[in-house]
Amino acid sequence: MVKINSLLALAAIGTGALAHPTIKKIDRRFCSLEERSVFARDDLTSRAVIPKATTWNPPSNMVTALDQVWARTLQENPQGLQDKNWITDQLMANNGSINYCVRWNHNGKSTAAARAKTVTALQRNLQKWFDVLVGFEGFPLTKLNVKVVGYAVKNKNLLEGDTSGLDIYTTTDPDGVPECDVRCYRAAHLDGNLSQCPGGADSRYDISLWLDQSLEGKMGGFGYNWGQELGPDYFLNNIDSENIHILEHEMGHGFGLLDFYDWTPQGQTNFIMMAGSAMEVTEFDAWMLRDWYRKLKAVRGW
Ligand SMILES: *[C@@H]1O[C@H](CO)[C@@H](O)[C@H](O)[C@H]1NC(C)=O
Ligand SMILES: *[C@@H]1O[C@H](CO)[C@@H](O)[C@H](O)[C@H]1NC(C)=O
Questions:
Q1: Model-level pTM?
Q2: Higher-confidence position of 22 and 224
Q3: For residue 299, how far is its CA from the centre of ligand 1 (angstroms)?
Q4: Which of 111, 181, 208, 265 gives a 20 to 30 Å CA spacing to 283?
């Protein structure tokens, strides 16, 4: 049994977070596993099998908890259904293709081998969420295709090896963090018009992976629909793991899912969105995502 015994300071929760012209950290809640005295152990929760679902039919012991979660979602993010940049929207806009841009805010070198593994890791971890939607309530996609299309770095010399096929950016945001060209960012062009993007449609990116030296040594990260921000050491040291659980947790925020630092939905104590209580996407996480999907579907007319 995992006990959550410390409550971490939460930054103010972002407002509706409609497409932001630059990829700011509009939601600065830090998801942390630090200061928790007990962690879920990988061997306790790995290999969870999440039953497929084609209709809204959650297990009876989750029904009350799911109602509580949705009520809380509307409270924390009243404009959530109006935000057209959830990962689900990104998937639907481009037939299951998700393009990442990596913000390498780090003085270490990026090797070609690590870049190749980064693509695989992003695909593998996002797949855990994608799979629970496949076949559910008419979700039309069956294939997830994650690519990394660009890197933003402080200095091109940090990129070792072949970088062909990648857009390399050395510009920074107002905070001095390497930034991918906003003209190519889908959320800044929700009408689909990327004519100003120098590389054209192929350079489109939907989301960012921030590997930020300020998070070195920290067991935690930031996440929202702009992407996931993690310590480079945590990400690179765990790049081959089946579940990079902090990454999966932050991806969950990209789908609109909440944190659970100060409350527990009835009867649900182990799931990845309750940081530290599970090492992978669980059936309860799956139903929270499916709830989002059916609600988005209703308002989007999918
Ligand atoms: C969407 O993706 C599927 C699976 O990759 C593919 O078979 C299909 O042709 C794509 N549809 C369009 C319109 O690109
Ligand atoms: C796309 O945007 C450009 C400039 O931002 C504009 O000139 C052009 O008319 C737009 N294209 C369409 C089809 O709306």
A1: 0.89
A2: 224
A3: 24
A4: 208
